[in-house]
Write a structure and sequence with these properties.
rod-shaped
Length: about 180
């Protein structure tokens, strides 16, 4: 008799557990959420890996837009819309730096320095060239020797060049050009 009561009790307990387990929505949600958490964690890990690899296109686009706006704003501070410096030295070494604000407001910057093995463009070149151009006080009536010396000093270039060419376009559209050969 004890055995029958024991088996009946286990049977009732088993039915109760099965009935309660099948109707428990919290367990199903937890399982689903855990699965979603795993998926979200995998996505987060992938995003972190992309960030480390520099593959986050949204941030890159935002940084490019901010960089472009920053370059435009800084160019507006200058008295020049276009600055080009080309200096040639013995041994076919050349230094070329240019900043240009286009009609559409975009800014182009290029720095090719064969003396130090530098060839950069865009934001990186702008960050290198802009502070040097900002130092210049060349105006439309500045004489050739002063303009050339200012450019050499601002860019820390030697005065033993073979040829130098400096072209500046002012905001009012006036252009000046200085050339010198030694």
């Amino acid at each position: 008799m004890k055995r029958i009561l024991f088996l009946a009790s286990i049977f009732i307990l088993a039915l109760t557990l099965v009935a309660c387990g099948g109707n428990n929505n919290d367990n199903n949600d937890t399982t689903t959420n855990q699965g979603a958490d795993v998926t979200n964690n995998e996505n987060q890990d992938t995003n972190e890996a992309d960030d480390k690899a520099g593959n986050d296109t949204n941030d890159t686009a935002t940084n490019n837009n901010n960089g472009t706006e920053d370059m435009r704003a800084k160019m507006d501070e200058l008295n020049y819309d276009d600055f080009e410096l080309s200096v040639k030295y013995d041994g076919d070494k050349e230094y070329e730096a240019s900043l240009e604000k286009n009609q559409d407001g975009s800014v182009e910057a290029d720095l090719e320095d064969e003396i130090n093995g530098v060839d950069i463009h865009g934001q990186e070149a702008f960050d290198e060239i802009y502070p040097k151009v900002k130092e210049l006080t060349i105006e439309q009536n500045t004489n050739k020797d002063d303009a050339i010396q200012q450019a050499l000093d601002a860019f820390s270039l030697e005065s033993n060049y073979k040829e130098i060419e400096l072209e500046i376009k002012f905001k009012d559209g006036t252009k000046i050009e200085f050339k010198d050969n030694k």
